[in-house]
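hi! just following up on the protien thing from before. the input was this:
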Amino acid sequence: MDTSVKQSPEPPAPAAAAPSPAAYRNLVLATVGFALTFWAWNLIAPMSGDYKDRLGLSSFQQSLLVAVPVLVGSLGRIPVGALTDKYGAKLMFPLVSALTIVPVLLLVPAKNSYGAMLAVGFLLGLGGTTFAIGVPLVNAWFPPRKRGFALGVFGMGMGGVALSGYFTPRIAKHGENLPFLVVAGALVVFALLGADLISDHPDRKVPADTLAHRLGEAGRLRVTWELSALYAIGFGGIVAFGVYLPTYLKTWYEMSPTEAGTKAAGFALVTVVFRPIGGWLSDRIHPAVVTSVALLLAALMAIVQAFEPPLNPVGTIALLAMAAGLGTASGSVFALVSQVTPQPKVGSVTGIVGAMGGLGGFVPPLVMGAIYSAKDSYAIGFMLLSDLALAGCVYAYGRMRTVQRDE
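and the predicted 3d structure came back as:
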């Protein structure tokens, strides 16, 4: 029994040292497609101020308009991940990219109706599901010793949200409908290229059971929910600060909207850069250990920020270090997914874990806002974040280091 287990990893060793050109081609295409669809997913948020003025929206209505595509995109990863297990990324990536073109173009006629914008925002959530397509694609093409870094590189596609925040309003200055036409055109090009160039791994196992059964199987795996909790802290923290950091900086440090937006973009950039670093470290150190240390760093920086230090330099250092910790953790958690999840279930588990990460980002802003309204301080909110990150740190180190893949 022991002998067979030890012998089986030996043949793939050369592949582990040098992934094929096809592996890198699929990684590049998946990362570009992820970034473009995430740009589309986030098209409403950078323009929400204009929609608020145009349609006379309340703050709640504005928040709902921004939240709908994010919530739908997060939940949509669950069925899309399971469908990717069944039909493969070669079909699913171009298909979802092409379908996302429809709501992007519908933003043009819908701009004068709040109801129409909500409906289009619901459809736009489709763009946020491609994360659950790319992870099983990249995971299949790269051997275990290269998988963490590859998944981290793919995860940099989440920078599409930052690209949208920066470029969408600037493109709109040259024509209010121009951003939607530019993104739609980019998606057309990618869908055509993806249909031709993306390829599923020849050894990909195709599940024969139903979608509901596969989701049920993934949901019954204990690691699915353990990984979901860790990803909700890591990636959820990134989403939360992406949504709430401009408000926090404007409210507490009395920054201008432009200043706050620039600082928030810097935070997002650090998370994007450190995501592949988390994957790279996970190829060399157990990903559970990387996750634990990264969450410990985030927890310590949240405690520093709870004492409401001056922004320069202490607050800036604390927030950027927190971004580094959360970015690293979001990369290492998916290295852990690939290590402890049976290959035929990676898409289904990724869908659930990704959904929980996205949804996890919308609880902290609500909590932070409610606490500030009640106590006129953000300190309690940051201490709660530190408690959550510390709990994740302890659990990752104490439990997840010992988890074995259950085939």
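DSSP finds 19 helices and no strands in the chain.
Confidence is low (pLDDT under 50) at residues 1-16.
cheers
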